[in-house]
Amino acid sequence: MHNYLTPNFSFAPMLPIRAEGSHVWDDNGQEYIDLAGGIAVNALGHCHPLLINALMEQAHKLWHISNIYTTQPAQNLAERLVKHTFAEQVFFCNSGAEANEAAFKLARKYARDHFPDTGKHEIIACINGFHGRTLFTVSVGGQPKYSNDFAPLPAGIRHIPFNDVAAIDAAVNDKTCAVVIEPIQGESGVLPVTEAFLQAARRACDRHQALLILDEVQTGMGRTGKLFAHQYYDIRPDIVSAAKALGCGIPIGAMLTTEAVGRSFTPGSHGSTFGGNPLACAVGCAAFDIINTPETLQNVLRQGEKLKEGLQELSAASGVFAQVRGQGLLLGCVMSDNYNGRAAQLMQLALQHGLLVLVAGNNVLRFAPSLLLTDADLQTGLQRLKAAIKAFVHI
Predict the structure, then answer these.
(1) b/e string for 359-369 if b means 16 or more Cβ within 10 A?
(2) Residue ranges matching CATH 3.40.640.10 in the chain
(3) Does the CA dihedral 333-334-337-340 come out positive or negative?
(4) What is the pLDDT of residues 190-212, one digit of tens each?
(5) Can you tell me whether residue 191 is helix, strand or coil?
(6) pTM beyond 0.90, yes or no
């Protein structure tokens, strides 16, 4: 098949045609077990019937009306997010990058509104963080490989080591408008935050009147066994970004915040043509009502433990992995020294054995399957990974 798209993606050598639950079929009829979840997007698997019903029902009512108006689906989804989180207000957009872009702009606008003429504008972020691919968000993300080609970059951004309490205490000052942290650094290796680091960030922000932003684009919406990962900690953020699983495959992002902070987004200060789209919000409501239940969240914890145990058993038997880490159904297998930097090679072999997985950096195999993952699909996936590992170690 001829590719008419720009060459910034290296597509896998298979063409997905249809999918259901944790199963995907290509144009040759081959079936795959999906433990990648569209990079943590397909939180309820593929083509969940209740989401299809929500989409079809809304499709017969209203698709788009512009942000001159609000809509009932947008208000319904925002109400769900407010009632079950710290937030009091929600801004809708189309992606995680846009949600983070809104968060960073709001932080600077809030600082300008409340501390005029003080130069309070600096954002403190973490080395190896990932917050999106817009120029602002790729600059805040602490990975030069994603930003170097687009210099000069926006100024006023500093990076510190992840989980370094002393570093955050030293970095935050009266010029800081915000600190941004991922509860689990997903793209750089599935690295969980420590409670001490989060608490230090909260104290530093309070001390210097800065905002604490938590990027939950990948960890939000049940991925770790709670609606949002920061709910495991005694921490109250000022802003949280969400996307990916929020629409379970329909593009939607959200920035959650308090009323005190959100009021800095005055009319005309920020916007999104498609943000709060009725189709996306209707699906988001249906997804929320399935995800935010004890049954789904317990399944995440239960299946996450089973998957982790299965991966550890494969590690012990093969010596391919040095560590299995993560939380809930966001797990990463760190390649051992003998296989350092070869995670992508193992991912390709897994594909050849009928299994969809991910990488995080060049040294971690990443798993982000459906939150509704069944025992049967989990075991089949592990069996296929075992076969891929057997081929991998004999290369």
Answers:
(1) bbbebbbbbbb
(2) 49-291
(3) positive
(4) 999 999 999 999 999 999 999 99
(5) strand
(6) yes
Tell me the per-residue pLDDT of 360-392, one tens digit each, with 9 for 90 and over: 999 999 999 999 999 999 999 999 999 999 999
Q: Let me know: does 254 contact 240? Beta carbons within 8 Å.
A: no
Check whether 272 is labelled as a binding-site residue: yes
Whole-number Å distance between alpha carbons of 182 and 192: 8
From the number of C-beta atoms within 10 Å of its C-beta (0-12, 13-18, 19+), residue 137 rates as buried
Rounded distance, CA 344 to CA 354, Å?
15
Does 91 appear as a known binding residue? no
**Backbone dihedral region of 132: left (phi > 0), alpha (psi from -120 to 50 degrees) or beta?**
left
Average per-residue pLDDT for the chain: 96
* 343 marked as part of a ligand binding site: no
Q: How confident is the model at residue 394 (pLDDT cuts 50, 70, 90)?
A: confident
Among the listed residues 2, 79, 69, the one whose alpha carbon sits nearest the alpha carbon of residue 256: 79
Q: Is 130 annotated as a binding residue?
A: yes
As a residue count, the chain comes to 395
> In CATH, what number does 49-291 get?
3.40.640.10
30 conformational bin, left if phi > 0, alpha if psi -120 to 50, beta if neither: beta
273 is in an annotated binding site: yes
CATH 3.90.1150.10 corresponds to the domain 16-34+294-393: yes
Q: Is there a binding annotation on residue 210?
A: no
Percent of the chain with pLDDT over 90: 94
> Mind giving me the DSSP string for 318-387?
H--EEEEEEETTEEEEEEPGGGTT-HHHHHHHHHHTTEE-EESTTSEEEE---TT--HHHHHHHHHHHHH
Consult the annotation and say whether 97 binds a ligand.
yes
| Residue 96 marked as a ligand binder | yes
Give the H or E element holding residue 65. Answer: none
Residue 49: beta bridge partners? none
Closest CA to 41 of 140, 145, 186, 181: 186
CATH 3.90.1150.10 residue ranges of the chain are 16-34+294-393
